[in-house]
Amino acid sequence: MKRFLITLYWDIVRQYRNGFYFVSVFVAALTALVLRQFDAVDWSIWWPPILLENLVINAFYFMAGIVLLEKGEGTLEAQIVTPLRDYEYLLAKVISLFALSALESLALILIVSGPAFNWLWMLLGIAGFVAMYAFYGFFVVSRYDSITEFLLPSALWTLGFSLPLLAYFDLWQHWSLFLHPLQAPLLLIHAAYAPLPAWQLAYAVVYTGVWVGIGYVIGQRAFYRFVITKEGVGRQ
């Protein structure tokens, strides 16, 4: 536990020193400025897609940025030969990014629409987004060694993120959207503002947990394949 907490602390410090918190403040301020121009908005409908798109930066791209920084500095290679376990490394990244994302998202929501929402469902929805994006971000970025190699293909890697938004814009309504991993946290955000049928709420909680678990597994395998094996270092 001590090893994990130290890793978590230094992840937060590294994110702060590299300007991630300043980027989050800027994005939140700019987004709030734009959203406050709209009157009579049903936020139960619009916060889910807004947060889905906003958290791509905080989780997917920030995770990628952290890993590429560590590769460039040689710290990722150094961590391989320490007692730090892969799950401690990954979970520290996800939790630190959740803390940053939750602060930004809640500040944005409070500024724009106030505190009239269910905090539990909101935080669970944000946590679901962040965990899925971050684990997937690590899975993708672990195979690249520089930001220039990563940026262009990252657009293709993230192409499917916005598919659940088709229903919000009445472009496509189909039951198969419930198979998409991000549909579940979208419903959790919606549940923070409006009651959902029991089956939808159960689906949202369970399916979010399932895909977070899948994300962890693919992140862990990517760590072994593209980090440990690539460096030629085994682990007990």
From TrEMBL:
Keywords: Membrane, Transmembrane, Transmembrane helix. The chain crosses the membrane at residues 20-38, 50-69, 90-113, 119-138, 150-169, 198-218. The keyword rRNA-binding does not apply. InterPro entries: FLQE3_permease. Pfam families: FLQE3_permease. This is ABC-2 type transporter. It comes from Roseiflexus castenholzii (strain DSM 13941 / HLO8).
